[in-house]
Amino acid sequence: MFILGDTAYGSCCxxxxxxxxxxxxxxxHFGPACLSPPARPLPVAFxxxxxxxxxxxxxxxxxxxNPDPKAPVVLLSEPACxxxxxxxxxxxxxxxxxxxxxxxxxxxxxxxxxxxxEPLERFGRRFPLAPGRCLEEYGAFYVGGSEASADLxxxxxxSRLLLGWAPGQPFFTCCxxxxxxxxxxxxxxxxxxxxxxxxxxxxxxxxxGLLAGTLGVARHREALAHLRNLAQAAxxxxxxxxxxxxxxxxxxxxxxxxxxxxxxxxLGALTPQLSxxxxxPVLAPCELEAACNPAWPPSGLxxxxxxxxxxxxxxxxxxxxxxxxxxxxxxxxxxxxxGELRPPPAWKPSDDPGCLxxxxxxxxxxxxxxxxxxxxxxxxxxxxxxxxxxxxVTGAVSGRQGIAIAYEDEGSS
Length: 413
Prior knowledge:
Layout: H1 16-22, E1 27-30, E2 44-47, H2 55-65, E3 73-77, H3 85-92, E4 99-101, E5 103-104, E6 120-122, E7 125-127, E8 139-143, H4 156-164, E9 171-174, E10 181-183, H5 185-204, E11 207-212, H6 220-233, E12 237-241, H7 248-251, E13 259-263, H8 266-275, E14 282-283, H9 285-292, E15 333-334, E16 341-342, H10 371-377, E17 402-403, E18 406-407
Parallel strand pairs: 1-2, 3-4, 3-8, 8-9, 11-12, 11-13, 13-14
Antiparallel strand pairs: 5-7, 6-7, 9-10, 15-16, 17-18
Helix pairs in contact: 2-3, 4-8, 5-9, 6-9
């Protein structure tokens, strides 16, 4: 038995890379989990924990926020409180007629099959919807958090629920210890406004840094190729960076990059947006899709997808790039940040056969330059120049002695 106490990326993902290095045949994952499908088949057992829930207080809080017994409501919770949702629903069902209980989308055992239809899976949860019903019809009542814990703005699981939930439906959170509730409509509006700002920054960007934030989640290679194709179709240069967990000092080493896109699990992709402190904004893959794909639905109509697999072919949310001759590529666009007119993309999508044709250029003309070189040439200080053969040779002399606040030749202050 091996204990894997650290991961290369996020602690919510199943560490299949560490398990392979240890030669493990199965894994037991403790703590919060994003429940993303791993890149390699491996039996995994999840231990999400059990936070105590005061059922009577939560039931009274639910009744206070939902006076209409016919209103459709979904019971949600953080993973550690999921064990109490069925007991809470038992107290509420005698009065409320349309109550739905979600459950963590734990992977089914290998080889198991059920004659019943598969429930809807979204946000890492399963929703047993009745035939003909959709999730956008339901409000939400979320049980989780604690008054003694940190601010819920730093919880990526709650943030992806607020971003992806239908904007016209109510969303309430309830503390499992005290039953204190809060309307999250204002917080959800701030998160959506932040998302619109990041999309505008991505549209203005010329250089995009693609951060490899996971190697253990399924289809990450396909998603990386998709993001590179998006950037190329929109006329942007892209660089792939493998830095492990992104931190402000790491990303500050690439000042020529305008925006970064973190290719990670749904929870990992939202964590840098909530923490802040980065020199350049860190986006989720959905925001780059909205910025570079002109066929993507406009703001307010497009869903916020937290998992990059929803953007790939085969997903019901996949929107293919328009053909190269489509007028969508030439639609005028004005930046909401700078107020300037954005030029149309200078590059065509990679599937365009014309992009492989050679064009004669005059001699000594610079056909293509690196964005990093252009950024360096625009800086006032470009580093120490070697100047080989131009600096006269001199003998070594004694330097200053002492510490920085009191050198010996400076005297006492």
